[in-house]
Amino acid sequence: MTPAVGQQRDVYVHPIQSPQKPKVHPNPRSATADEFDDDAVLHGVLLDGTVLSGREAEIVEMERSRVANARLNGISLRQSLFSDSEFDTVDFANARALDTSLLRCRLTASRLTGSHWRAGKFTDVTLDGGRADLAQFRASQLRRVVFQDVNLLQADFQGAELAHVRFEGCDLTGAQFAHCKMTRVEFSNCTMLDVGGTAGLKGAIVRGPGGQELALSLARDAGILIEP
Predict the structure, then answer these.
(1) What 3-state class would DSSP assign to 171?
(2) CA dist., res. 41 & res. 77, Å (int)
(3) What pLDDT score does 206 carry?
């Protein structure tokens, strides 16, 4: 039957794809900080309590490994790859990672405050808890990524491409989304006050109180003044 004028057909929307779980080595060997260097290839290692603060390294590859209670704050990485790995209570504050990729990784209760992930690739990644306030994901590609209960205060996603990405219970106050490209992106029960670049959220789904908060930012970007 042809629908009446003004009546909309039901359209099936494909569900958001969830990240694949990392395949961490069941018995990783203990590694030292000296092994984390230029052109290093680390397979099935454990870095527990390791301090790598301020270290510079290029083209590091780490796979099927686990990093726990470690300090990588201020580290500088370039063209590196982390795959099938878990990061538990790791400090990435003020890290600089250019053209670096995370593939099938999980970050739990970790700190990414002020870190830069410019032109990076996040595929099948889960960030559970922790902080990523003031973090930059500019011009990065995020596919099948979940931010769960993460502090993303003033995080910067400008120019990023997001596909099958979920933000759940996150604080996105002051976050920037200008010139983003979004495909199957959802915000659920997030704080979305004073969000910038609202045009970059086109196509996203917002659930919970964040929708009303976002409306104020949409009005601001449209040049609408709302007075009490």
Answers:
(1) strand
(2) 14
(3) 93
The identity of residue 60, as a single letter, is V
Dig out the tokens for 45 from the structure.
């290692």
Print the SS3 string covering 181-228. Answer: EEEEEEEECCECCCCECHHHHCCCEEECCHHHHHHHHHHHHCCCCCCC
% of the chain with per-residue pLDDT over 90: 83
What type of residue sits at position 202?
A: K
**pTM, two decimal places:** 0.89
Q: Which of these, 222, 165, 178, lies nearest to 16 by C-alpha position? A: 165
Which residues, 6+ apart, have CB-to-CB distance to 203 below 8 Å?
182, 183, 185
Are 65 and 24 within 8 A, CB to CB? yes
Distance CA 190, CA 89 (A): 23
* Report for 3-7, 8-12, 114-118: range of highest mean pLDDT: 114-118
pLDDT score recorded for residue 11: 55
C-beta neighbour count of 37 within 10 angstroms: 14
Radius of gyration of the CA atoms of the chain, in A: 19
Reported residue count of the chain is 228
- Residue 99 three-state SS: coil
Is 135:157 a contact under the CB 8 Å cutoff? no
pLDDT per position as a tens digit, 161-178: 999 999 999 999 999 999
Is the pLDDT at 81 greater than 90? The verdict is: yes
Sign of CA pseudo-dihedral 59, 60, 64, 70:
negative
